[in-house]
TrEMBL record:
GO terms for molecular function: metal ion binding; metalloendopeptidase activity. The lineage of its organism: Bacteria, Pseudomonadati, Pseudomonadota, Gammaproteobacteria, Chromatiales. PROSITE patterns: NEPRILYSIN, PROKAR_LIPOPROTEIN. It holds the Pfam family Peptidase_M13_N. Keywords: Hydrolase, Metal-binding, Metalloprotease, Protease, Zinc. Residues 477-678 form the Peptidase M13 C-terminal domain. PANTHER family: FI17812P1-RELATED (PTHR11733:SF167), ZINC METALLOPROTEASE FAMILY M13 NEPRILYSIN-RELATED (PTHR11733). Residues 49-425 form the Peptidase M13 N-terminal domain. This is Peptidase M13. SUPFAM superfamilies: Metalloproteases ('zincins'), catalytic domain. Its cofactor is Zn(2+). It comes from Abyssibacter profundi. Belongs to the peptidase M13 family. One of its GO terms (cellular component) is plasma membrane.
Amino acid sequence: MKHVLLGGAVIGMSACSHFQAVETAESPQPQAPLASGVIHAHFDDSVQPQEDFYRWVNGTWLEETEIPADRSNYGAFSVLDDRAEQQLRSIIETAAETDAAPGSDTQKIGDFYTSFMDVETVNALGAKPLAEEFGRIDALTSTDELPALMAHHQLVNIGGIYGAYIWQDAKQSDQYTVYFVQSGTGLPDRDYYLEDTEDFARIRKAYRAHIEKMLTLAGIEAPATKAEAIFDLETELARMQWTKVDSRDISKTYNKVTVDELAKLTPNFDWATFLTEMGIELDAVVVAQPSFFEATSDLIANTDLATWQAYLKWQVIDDYAPYLSQEFVNGDFDFYGKTLRGTPEIRPRWKRGVAVVEESLGEVLGRIYVAEHFPPIAKARMERLVDNLLLAYEQSIKELEWMTDDTKAEALKKLATFKPKIGYPDKWKDYSALEVRADDLFGNMVRSNLVESRREIAKLGGPVDPDEWHMTPQTVNAYYNPVANEIVFPAAILQPPFFNLEAEDAINYGGIGAVIGHEIGHGFDDQGSKFDGEGNLNNWWTDADRQAFDALGKQLIEQYNAYEPIPGYKVNGQLTLGENIGDLGGLSIAYEAYKLALNGRPAPVLDRYTGEQRLFIGWAQVWARKYREEALIERIKSDPHSPSEYRANGTLENVPAFHEAFNTRPGDGMWKAPEDRVQIW
């Protein structure tokens, strides 16, 4: 089952934090700071902060750091990923060495990892694990039977032309529904199929060769002919797909239809059979891209069965190749790793094994991870810092000049209902239904996917679980969920070196404080602002205020559209708008929260920098990141986040306090005239 957060609200960030509650007259004086938190070794003092702040803070690091051979990019918070990975490895390998009771969590963790690390058994099996799924496909006698098979594929996480997931209904957030989305293509974006550029032509050629190679490994006859047919089919699907800009617009993608209306939309696909095979009983569903579903109806009827069978076998191979013999694993990496993202080497097998166990038994690992690596004091301090950021947002909303009082009242009402979740869930998912065998990697993956699909489908018709998390505690990330109006911060993003108890507040407000502000900001970005405090799509804006907000967003779009990280590839300001609003609001509010934490006292000067300067240094430090060119192109085309350099500098250009702190002047590289600065929240 594909799990998707609506509105593009999930971000990948990393930050430091020394938490300090807003003080009252009764509050104790804070402990004397022990360090500034400024990483001087990363600076390039040949660059002036007023010219290029990002390179002033990170220039030496950018010059001296090599991207590890098994990564497509590498950045400041990759340290957190590496640390969490090592911590999980210790937990998993301990379980694998334990003589655990059958069916216990320890047995499942250990045997899942053992099945992945048993290369000899996996290699001996070759393509044999594919036989059962191939048999289902070979048994098809007409395209009328596609819905039942595609439903089965959805349950075991094999791709198809449609995707489905269970989520809260965006207009009735107290209940779950099924969302159907466009799918069916293997390249990162429709532009890879349709744009006539040298880079994409090279990738298309390599992709066709990759399909042929993998079909050959699987023992499929006439692989070259079938690879061409598969690629042509995917190209037709790409032509029908919506752009990523349109697909992140919740106003366009929330289209609730009855099952009968869905059947009329795609008459050549039996949706009743699809839903029945999935075990879903609903009268209505949400269709994200109706024109895609309508267009695919003729494609289904006009494409011969043999092509569909080849395409479906390719989907099986493509999704399960990482769990097959080494020749499949190498073939999969050669294209998706080397060619598509420019990564020279595959990750060591133990790292991939840890990732597989984490994916399949995430909250089992999470419970152990939290017990060993996340002390209760960290959660308590984080809760106080979140309170600071919410208070700063409240004050900022009240002081907005472009918003009228009526809309302010509604914005404050929504802010008051935000639900923070810190560290880990209050209750853990149950994995008792999952059977894990030490000698059956492929089967473990199929069974794991089935358990998760059935867990999701079982939600339908029941009450919404307010305690559910959509990330594990060991995930270095954070998210805002608009249909629950919740901001969520897993434990792993609060670990050293970024959760720095020895650093004075400023550097950390520029880091983890801005992360918190960013997530709050998603509730008020171009998409999140369409939801009310109950998590429902509901316009709480006056027309004039919405127009003013959209005009500010248009300015931000134009700013980011001008950035060109690679010649010929510009940032898509419309695609990245939500994240850019989140960054701008997050940093601006973090600055205000820092001033609240000072409680009227002057910020200390440490390492010759004022508190205000260190806050902005903290912001830039967390965005240190390098990309391989291929990976950067993929990000520009498919990721709603701007490349890190532009997240850092592009945000700072709009913050008046930054210009004051570093005394920028007209003609400086970072200068933006006051009347041109975008200030939203």
